[in-house]
Specification:
The structure holds two protein chains of two kinds. Chain A is mainly α. Chain A is built from ten helices and no strands. Chain B starts with 19 loop residues before the first helix and ends with a helix.
């Protein structure tokens, strides 16, 4: 007795899109300016460099590395705070039911344009005014933060239950009172949580911003990479990984405490 | 005054305790901000220099508002290279991630030690930004698209494996147990039962990572890793902000178009 299996569903769209994707991928591999024969001795090369970096990391420069890391983290913090201060009022204006429609659409457009530009380019644009200082880095992170924080902000404001808002309106509350007593109590946990998340993102980005010379751990890393002092580069990478992971862990713990509440005893 | 007959002053429940906690948190935040903003300990938030340089900056912004359209032919090749890097890195990253995702999820890999090692390594890989990888890799393998692709692949594997293995773990364990009970080895069970369930989330995350790659590959060239970034670096050294603004416009268009297409496909998938 043979098993009769139902025929597999096929769709023409799926087939066409698979063909397009394959064509694009093949074309990219074929046309890109990479000598693929290099890949043969690449693993050995990379293993050698990894050995140079991590077999005996130089720890003498650790104090300087920590000072530069602190600078990066300070940049990230200031960037986050400035971003929050600017983005929060804007996200109220961009939320349906609070801002007038033209303002709402203008702000949403602004947020998505900002989100499409990498922060390092924002830093390049503003450094003609602010110079190569850590403040430039912080401002670039703040501007980029307005894009993401603004979007998350209006989304969570729109997700707030209507009941309390209507209740405040019904008892004669003004718009600002509606925001304070109807929206804010239910939106706070989400806001706090994505503020912290944005700080985590900024900690990573602040290391990157060092590459254009605004200071911090990224700046130090590029200089030592250019001097090809691999043992110091290895130490710096370890510092970056440890610091980022610990900040992530602390921030994730706080976020969990905020969104899930205290553990019941 | 009272309808139900009771009299006396209205009894208000006592305010819950612990209302000082938000204020404490606020004070801590304010203290950290003060320290990080102070000139000797942190970022030195000083707006007087900005006010002094404003003239200079205003000139640059005027330049930014007038893109140099004649520059367009020179941007085509780097733009294509950016897209090539993003496509190749996405494909390679996705191919590497699929087996690793199955390895990193509890349901599809019962061995805790191997899983733990893989996850720790990937957590470490994810905590270094792609541009830092690129700048180190450029020193290792030389200038060009190759270090950029490798940096993007590293970053992609970190993200896809995390998101897809989390999706696997949120799946129902029942079918997998049924497969084991029917005598399948872990490999057979993963291939026949877990894999079909993984596809939608895998494709979804791959497209998401493609969006991230397009965005990231536009700036990887700043450290010498190929693509538009090389051009950005060149025009910024000569302060050609009119050309920079054309490049930024191109990045905007590409990122927005690819985000729209990719999120339309992802919406259909889910």
């Amino acid at each position: 007795m043979s098993v009769i299996a139902p025929p597999k569903p096929r769709s023409r769209i799926l087939l066409v899109s698979a063909l397009i994707v394959t064509a694009v991928v093949v074309a990219s591999f074929w046309s890109v300016d990479v000598t693929w024969s290099r890949l043969i001795d690449l693993p050995a090369d990379i293993a050698r460099y990894l050995w140079l970096m991590f077999s005996a990391p130089t720890w003498e420069k650790l104090p300087e590395a920590l000072a530069q890391t602190w600078r990066s983290v300070a940049m990230a913090w200031i960037g986050t705070v400035l971003g929050i201060v600017v983005a929060t009022p804007l996200s109220f204006l961009a939320a349906r039911g609070f801002g007038p429609a033209p303002v709402r659409w203008a702000l949403r457009g602004l947020f998505s344009v900002i989100r499409a530009v990498p922060e390092i380019i924002i830093a390049i644009i503003i450094l003609s005014v602010t110079g190569l200082t850590p403040l430039t880095g912080a401002l670039a992170l703040a501007i980029n933060g307005v894009g993401t924080l603004g979007k998350w902000g209006y989304e969570s404001i729109e997700g707030v239950p209507r009941g309390p808002i209507e209740a405040v309106r019904a008892s004669g509350g003004s718009t600002s009172q509606v925001l304070r007593w109807g929206v804010w109590p239910s939106a706070t946990p989400e806001f706090l949580s994505f503020w912290l998340y944005r700080f985590e993102i900024n900690v990573r980005s602040s290391a990157v911003l060092g590459l254009i010379g605004v200071g911090g751990i990224g700046d130090m890393l590029t200089s030592y990479t250019q001097y090809r002092e691999w043992s110091t580069v290895g130490m710096l990478l370890i510092v970056v990984v440890v610091v980022t992971m610990s900040i992530d862990a602390v921030s994730a713990a706080i976020r969990r405490r905020i969104t899930e509440g205290a553990r019941t005893r | 005054m009272t309808a139900d007959g009771t009299s006396g002053p209205l009894r208000i429940p006592r305010r819950p305790r612990g209302r000082w906690k938000p204020w404490l948190a606020l004070a801590v935040v304010a203290a950290i901000t003060a320290v990080t903003a102070s000139p000797q300990w942190g970022v030195a938030v000083a707006f007087d220099a900005i006010a002094r340089n404003w003239q200079n900056g205003a000139l640059k912004i005027v330049q930014l508002l007038q893109p140099d359209w004649a520059f367009w032919p020179r941007t085509v090749a780097p733009l294509l290279e950016t897209l090539q890097m993003a496509v190749i890195a996405t494909v390679v990253g996705a191919l590497l991630s699929l087996p690793l995702s199955l390895w990193a999820a509890k349901l599809t890999n019962p061995h805790a030690v191997g899983r733990g090692i893989l996850r720790t390594v990937l957590n470490a890989v994810r905590s270094v930004p792609d541009l830092l990888y690129a700048s180190v890799l450029v020193a290792m393998v030389g200038v060009g698209a190759l270090p950029g692709i490798i940096a993007l692949v590293l970053f992609n594997v970190g993200i896809i494996v995390k998101l897809v293995s989390e999706a696997i773990e949120s799946n129902d364990a029942g079918p997998l147990e049924a497969g084991r009970a029917a005598g399948g080895s872990q490999l057979q069970v993963n291939r026949a039962i877990a894999l079909p369930d993984v596809w939608p989330s895998f494709i979804n995350q791959t497209l998401y990572v493609f969006e991230l790659n397009v965005r990231a590959s536009t700036v990887l060239g700043l450290v010498g890793a190929g693509g538009l970034g090389l051009l950005i670096d060149a025009v910024r050294t000569y302060y050609r902000y009119d050309q920079l603004s054309l490049i930024i416009l191109e990045i905007l268009v590409i990122v927005v178009v690819i985000d729209l297409v990719s999120s339309a496909i992802r919406k259909r998938l889910v």
